[in-house]
Design goal:
The protein has about 240 residues and is α+β, with helices and mostly antiparallel strands. The chain has helices spanning about 10-20, 40-45, 70-85, 90-120, 125-150, 160-170, 185-195, 195-200, 220-225, 230-235; strands at about 1-5, 25-30, 55, 65-70. Strands 2-1-3-4 form a 4-stranded mixed sheet, with helices on one face.
């Protein structure tokens, strides 16, 4: 019913977790971003931003043609609406879920992503970028910890806001941010990690594996991820 265009990043695992949690049938369409699969016209027709993941709903609720959805927050909300799962129905709960989802996609995820870039990928010696984004990544963990001292999950009950945030907390080990000072985050992280849907969703992998602390990219691979090839795919589309 759903095609999941996927790489095994924290953003990709947001959606594979959701797919497993809601129980919709889906097919993984694996991409090699180092080879530039995400820059091909066929994928840009699905996601004009040429980022992964994205989904194509082959049986949308309106009965129409297959429908593509890109951006992880939009995908999570779309799937929650489609299935009636993991988003509260009451006004306050729904708003809390949307607020924390917005917090993740606009702040927590991008700041942690920039920390990963400067610590793991950028040429050595980028001291300002490393300090700027590592500090912001840590600050946002404090925000998360404070919230999880008030509630069991971000919106009260387990929801798409938690699914969006959990994979990026899981990735803090790659930027050597310890969860030891964050007791509430650790309680929440461990509880979510025991969910069978989360375990199945994070077991989905494909090549290449960029889990090493300092991936080594050749010139072409760098260009496909961060450089001229990525720019050209938008400019020349």
């Amino acid at each position: 019913m759903i095609d999941l265009h996927f790489v095994p990043t924290p953003n990709g695992h947001k959606i594979s977790i959701m797919m497993e949690e809601v129980g919709l049938p889906y097919t993984v369409k694996a991409y090699d971003m180092l080879a530039g699969d995400h820059l091909k016209p066929e994928y840009r027709a699905i996601n004009p931003n040429a980022r992964l993941p994205a989904i194509v709903d082959l049986a949308p609720a309106d009965g129409g043609e297959p429908f593509a959805v890109f951006e992880t927050g939009a995908i999570l909300e779309y799937l929650a609406e489609k299935t009636g799962q993991f988003i509260p129905t009451d006004l306050r709960g729904r708003s809390l879920c949307q607020q924390w989802l917005a917090w993740q996609i606009s702040g927590f995820g991008p700041s942690h992503g920039q920390a990963h870039h400067f610590i793991r990928y950028a040429p050595l010696g980028q001291d300002y970028g490393v300090a700027r984004y590592r500090n912001e990544a840590e600050r946002l963990l404090h925000v998360l910890d404070r919230r999880l001292g008030e509630a069991e999950y971000l919106a009260g009950d387990y929801s798409i806001a938690d699914m969006a945030t959990w994979p990026w907390v899981r990735a803090t080990r790659a930027i050597e941010l310890s969860l030891e000072p964050f007791a509430n985050v650790r309680r929440w992280f461990d509880a979510i990690g025991q969910r069978p849907g989360v375990q199945r969703g994070t077991s989905i992998t494909n090549a290449p594996n960029l889990s090493s602390l300092r991936p080594q990219l050749n010139e072409q691979q760098w260009s496909n991820l961060f450089g001229e090839n990525m720019l050209a795919s938008a400019r020349d589309a």
